[in-house]
Specification:
The protein contains one helix and 19 strands. The chain is mostly beta strands and 294 residues long. Residues 193-223, 282-294 have a biased composition (Low complexity).
Length: 294
């Protein structure tokens, strides 16, 4: 560990405008001088723009040294939302057998909360990223099209008048934090320009139509969230995100962080949101990166 360096890259990241994403700054962290232990410590580092070498503010990171069996674990949960075509491409929420289903398509419910209860059967997990749409390259709203519910093929584009059904994946991320290690208010701060901004929110139509894209701030993530009274689509927490983006697939999968897959004890880093408290809750995002060398 004496010669190990951890390279942290902070990005302006907007899922709705991928061509406008660009790096904010990098920081090279020598792990040995940190004196890592099983108690979490926060350290602040200067960021340097990789393109011009100029200073781009600071990033605060949390470090903790953990054994593989104690490391942070990540759980991905996903469900399907369905709509059916009525007349002239007018899409409405599917009522029979239900608007929502588990990722295997075997259990249907009327609400997202009921579907979430079917996939979330374990205790001790904290929601870190609330329900959000799984966008595709062909459809920013994530819809796939088919002729019947039991169709083995779901198409990314609506290219046939026989496609009377469509579905899309919603997923969320949950964390199980190691003992004594919890989220902290971490982030990126530029003394010249604040990156904290929130886009305006727009509501989904009562007929089950696709939510409109929110108006993103300078650093934002396209997300959607649900409450018991209404379905609302809003922009995500402003975030200067690390380069590693954890993409979920339909179904639920539990995967340890990188340090848990190695038998050696190694430090892990928890990077929080920019300009806001990085913790569990709706609309919050966090990335965890571990060193690849020991």
């Amino acid at each position: 560990m004496a010669k190990t360096k951890l390279i942290i890259s902070v990005y302006h990241y907007d899922e709705t405008r991928p061509k406008e994403n660009f790096p904010i700054g990098d920081a090279a962290v020598k792990l040995e001088p940190l004196g890592l232990t099983e108690e979490a410590i926060d350290k602040t580092f200067s960021l340097t723009n990789p393109n011009n070498g100029k200073s781009e503010g600071e990033a605060t990171l949390r470090f903790v040294c953990l054994a593989p069996e104690d490391a942070l674990r990540i759980l991905e949960e996903s469900v399907y939302e369905y709509q059916h075509c009525r007349v002239f491409t007018q899409w409405e929420a599917l009522t029979n057998p239900g608007r929502w289903s588990t990722s295997d398509g075997k259990k249907f419910t009327e609400t997202l909360e009921e579907a979430a209860a079917l996939v979330n059967s374990e205790e001790g997990w904290t929601v870190t990223n609330t329900w959000s749409i799984m966008s595709t390259r062909d459809d920013p709203d994530g819809w796939q099209y088919a002729t019947t519910l039991d169709s083995p093929f779901w198409h990314a584009k609506n290219t046939s008048s026989l496609f009377l059904l469509r579905r899309r994946t919603w997923h969320r991320t949950l964390n199980r934090w190691p003992p004594g290690c919890t989220p902290s208010p971490l982030g990126h701060h530029n003394p010249a320009t604040s990156t904290s901004a929130t886009g305006s929110s727009t509501k989904d139509s009562t007929s089950g139509g696709s939510p409109r894209s929110p108006s993103p701030g300078p650093v934002s993530v396209r997300r959607a969230s649900f409450d018991a009274a209404a379905e609302a689509n809003r922009s995500g927490s402003p975030s200067a995100r690390a380069a590693r983006i954890y993409n979920a697939t339909p179904g639920r999968s539990e995967s340890p962080s990188a340090n848990a897959r190695d038998g050696n004890r190694r430090p892990s880093m928890d990077r929080g949101t920019a300009g806001a408290g990085g913790s569990s809750g709706k609309g919050s995002t966090s990335e965890r990166t571990t060193s690849n060398r020991s």
